[in-house]
Specification:
15-stranded parallel β-sheet; mainly beta; about 0% helix; about 200 residues
């Protein structure tokens, strides 16, 4: 279903800034065009949303029990957001809200400009993009964890925590920066990881 088609929505109008959006009943919805702002978003289990073009801004809470994809457009999350699975093959993910990804972040391309806290739980190999403006990052995976860009977090304490069930890979010499706190990296064999220019005490 096309987000921009008024007939696809109850009331016969595309949702606006004052509307809370619910996607349910087994729908696969694409946002291919337009610049839309909504108050809040819920995508129930068994449903999906693909931001493939244009921009979609969510001012309040986002809850995705199904799947969320960004393949060419811009998604802006300014409220507290909880997502089961997120796939990125292009486009941009921005916003000031905190984001929790509970069951997989499948990234291949695109930019991430989130400025809140990001919490990622993943199964298998995890590729993390450049993350330059976070408050904090907590990322764990059962497989390898690979950096595709540098990561900066402004929070205090354990501002960046990366936990790989297998190997941590930073062969591109991407930096980790936690100016007000510290970064921690865990892997199955810390002494042999490809840590690039990162320094360690082991």
């Amino acid at each position: 279903l096309n987000w921009a088609t008024p007939a696809n929505w109850s009331g016969g109008a595309v949702p606006g800034a004052g509307n809370t959006v619910l996607i349910s009943s087994g729908f696969a919805v694409a946002h291919p065009t337009g610049n839309d702002t909504i108050a809040a978003l819920t995508v129930n289990s068994g449903n999906s949303l693909d931001v493939s073009g244009g921009s979609l801004t969510v001012s309040g809470a986002t809850t995705v029990g199904g799947s969320l994809a960004i393949s060419g457009g811009t998604l802006v999350l300014n409220g507290t957001s909880s997502v089961q699975t997120l796939g990125m093959t292009g486009g941009a993910l921005n916003g000031s809200g905190n984001l929790s990804i509970a069951n997989g972040f499948n990234y291949s391309s695109g930019s991430v400009g989130l400025s809140g806290a990001l919490d990622v739980t993943h199964t298998g190999n995890l590729l993390l993009p450049a993350l330059g403006s976070l408050t904090s990052l907590q990322a764990s995976t059962t497989g390898n964890l690979t950096l595709a860009g540098g990561i900066t977090a402004s929070g205090t304490g354990n501002a960046i925590v990366l936990a790989a069930g297998q190997d941590f890979v930073d062969s591109g010499n991407h930096p980790l920066s936690a100016s007000n706190g510290r970064w921690l990296v865990y892997s199955q064999s810390p002494a042999t990881i490809a840590k690039g220019l990162l320094t360690s005490n082991f």
